[in-house]
């Protein structure tokens, strides 16, 4: 059984006095397995947040079906105890109350009480390094601390499924790393399913098992991060050569899919070219061609394909 | 106790606690609000004496003031109960908490009940303080047969919260209802007979006034607390039945409209809009 199943999910927003409605999400079908960290990517307005809000029941789909642990949310409201969500970053908490009061308040609303609630609070505050701030009023916390508290609140009822919308946005490097590590640890150790929407592609690349790319409401790619990079990413080399680009004859390099002069330094008589590879052995052919033409290779760096490149390429396409 | 009931009790507890924490955090604001309310009442008190300085007989004046006091105090409860949900929904949309509350297994409607209970408890303390101050400074005396007054008070509040649920539902869609609820709430001061008898109004307006959720409750409270009538009198006259029907209608319509408007808000994706 999957943790989340979306079946031909569609959301149209009708507009007052207008005949045409806006299609925010169209026929999206995907499954997210238990314990999986799943990334949902897409440009602004792609429909990511609408999908997340439909999964947690805050927006009703126009068509299609959502199953959480095999159960339809609209028929079993108790399934909500199994979902935690951070929907708008550092918001989501009550700023006039202290950290501990917020945890107690949301714990009770999510049906966690007594000793269980206390133990859960202590564990989460310790995990997210917020013990020292437990009696601080939320208003006085930094943005990063508020962000961490919002994530802690999402975990308070020990949910199976966590929906995180931009969880590390606005955090400093240390804070972002801590949040990232905590998400991974909770997902791996406690077998939590995490659905992450973000613009930080390096975060997705680093922690997500699979990625879905949404564009204009439609699912345009769905696979493991690694496979997407392999299938769609362009493997290339940055090669620093002796000589100016006009003197360095690149016409002899048609074996490459693309040859691009990235940087040229006229004073030093150096240039940096980017060779996009079609095949692994193209590199040896390139070295051979350059050697034959008497061009000196100063350095050569292999650049791994990045999710960002794939994302841009797919959305542009 | 069944788990479901335990969970609802904890939701109520959480909301009551939250009301007290907010009260403590903004104590100065709450206190200054009380002072303002007291000054407002004293304005009504002196207004009752007229510009000419003519004062009716002491007995008449004392009874009149007692009527006004009961009307004013009940109106203070109406002021909070009618607009409490819509204000909370507007504010919590702004701070991103509304969606988190809507995400809880009990849902918005149970949570709103919790807020109603919490608000009422805090109001009883704060408005009670105003009432005690009024009694001390004006020397009026009010009867307090606890059980009948409690029943009538709770029934009246139920009707008022019915209207509150309706406005809360509208706030889920339109977010800012400020002026509408202010007009309604201050309209109550006049139209429910809180400071002036509705018998002076034209008959068509009297009819409208009698359908409002506070009017009948206020009438009965005055009978019990000022005129010293026994509860049996209220039962036999049919006033209590009218209140029961009126409040039941208001709370039923209020809850149904809230649920319907919440459904529309979810359909249109408006819960998180601010």
What does this protein look like?
- The complex is a heterodimer of chains A (317) and B (274).
- Chain A has helices at residues 48-55, 99-109, 114-127, 143-155, 173-189, 201-207, 225-232, 282-292, 307-316; strands at residues 4-13, 22-32, 37-41, 63-68, 71-72, 83-86, 161-165, 193-197, 210-215, 218-224, 236-242, 258-265, 270-276, 297-303.
- In chain A, 41% of the residues are buried.
- By secondary structure, chain A is of the alpha/beta class.
- The longest helix of chain A has 17 residues, at 173-189.
- Chain A is globular, with a radius of gyration of 25 Å.
- Chain A starts with a strand and ends with a helix.
- Chain B is mainly alpha-helical and 274 residues long.
- Chain B is built from eleven helices and no strands.
- Chain B has helices spanning 3-25, 27-47, 58-95, 98-102, 107-138, 146-174, 178-191, 203-211, 215-225, 231-237, 239-268.
- In chain B, helix 9 packs antiparallel against helix 11 (239-268).
- The longest helix of chain B is centred in the first third of the chain and has 38 residues, at 58-95.
- Chain B starts with a helix and ends in a 6-residue tail after the last helix.
- The model of chain B has no long low-confidence stretch (mean pLDDT 89).
- The chains are: A alpha/beta (317), B mainly alpha (274).
- The interface between A and B is medium-sized, with 37 and 32 residues.
């Amino acid at each position: 059984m999957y943790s989340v199943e979306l079946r031909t999910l569609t959301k149209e927003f009708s507009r007052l006095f207008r005949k045409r409605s806006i299609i925010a999400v169209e026929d999206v079908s995907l499954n997210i397995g238990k314990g999986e960290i799943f990334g949902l990517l897409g440009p602004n307005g792609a429909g990511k947040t609408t999908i997340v809000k439909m999964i947690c029941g805050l927006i009703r789909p126009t068509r299609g079906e959502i199953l959480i642990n095999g159960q339809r949310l609209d028929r079993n409201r108790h399934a909500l105890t199994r979902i935690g969500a951070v929907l708008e970053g550092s918001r989501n908490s009550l700023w006039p109350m202290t950290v501990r009061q917020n945890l107690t308040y949301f714990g009770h609303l999510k049906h966690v009480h007594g000793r269980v609630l206390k133990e859960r609070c202590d564990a989460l505050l310790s995990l997210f390094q917020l013990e020292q701030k437990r009696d601080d009023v939320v208003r006085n916390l930094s943005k990063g601390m508020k962000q961490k508290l919002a994530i802690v609140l999402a975990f308070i009822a020990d949910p199976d499924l966590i929906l995180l919308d931009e969880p590390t946005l606005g955090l400093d490097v240390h804070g972002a790393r801590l949040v990232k590590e905590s998400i991974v640890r909770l997902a791996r150790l406690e077998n939590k399913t995490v659905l992450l929407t973000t613009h930080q592609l390096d975060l997705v690349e680093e922690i997500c098992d699979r990625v879905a790319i949404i564009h204009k409401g439609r699912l345009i790619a769905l696979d493991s991060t690694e496979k997407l990079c392999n299938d769609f990413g362009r493997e290339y080399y940055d090669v620093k050569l002796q000589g100016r680009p006009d003197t360095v004859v690149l016409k002899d390099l048609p074996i490459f899919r693309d040859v691009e002069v990235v940087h040229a330094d006229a004073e030093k008589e150096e240039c940096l070219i980017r060779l996009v590879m079609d095949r692994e052995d193209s590199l040896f052919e390139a070295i051979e061609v350059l050697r034959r033409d008497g061009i000196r290779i100063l350095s050569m760096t292999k650049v791994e394909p990045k999710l960002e490149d794939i994302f841009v390429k797919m959305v542009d396409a | 106790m069944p788990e479901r009931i335990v969970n609802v009790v904890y939701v109520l507890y959480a909301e009551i606690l939250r009301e007290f924490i907010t009260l403590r955090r903004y104590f100065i604001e709450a206190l200054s609000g009380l002072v303002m309310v007291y000054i407002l009442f004293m304005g009504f008190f002196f207004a009752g004496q007229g510009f000419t300085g003519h004062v009716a007989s002491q007995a008449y004046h004392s009874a009149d003031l007692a009527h006004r006091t009961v009307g004013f105090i009940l109106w203070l409860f109406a002021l909070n109960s009618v607009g409490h949900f819509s204000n909370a929904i507007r504010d919590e949309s702004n701070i991103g908490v509304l969606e988190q509350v809507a995400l809880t297994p009990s849902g918005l409607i149970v949570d709103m009940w919790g807020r109603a209970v919490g608000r009422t408890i805090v109001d009883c303390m704060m408005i009670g303080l105003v009432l005690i101050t009024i009694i001390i400074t004006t020397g009026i005396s009010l009867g307090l047969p606890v059980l009948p007054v409690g029943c009538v008070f709770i029934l009246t509040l139920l009707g008022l919260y019915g209207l509150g649920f309706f406005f809360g539902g509208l706030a889920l869609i339109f977010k800012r209802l400020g002026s509408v609820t202010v007009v309604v709430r201050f309209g109550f001061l006049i139209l429910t007979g809180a400071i002036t008898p509705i018998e002076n109004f034209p008959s068509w307006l009297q009819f409208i006034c009698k359908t409002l959720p506070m009017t009948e409750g206020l009438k009965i409270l005055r009978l019990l607390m000022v005129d010293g009538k026994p509860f049996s009198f209220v039962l036999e006259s049919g006033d209590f039945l009218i209140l029961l029907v009126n409040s039941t209608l208001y709370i039923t319509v209020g809850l149904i409209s809230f649920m319907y408007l919440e459904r529309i808000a979810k359909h249109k994706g408006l819960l998180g809009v601010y």
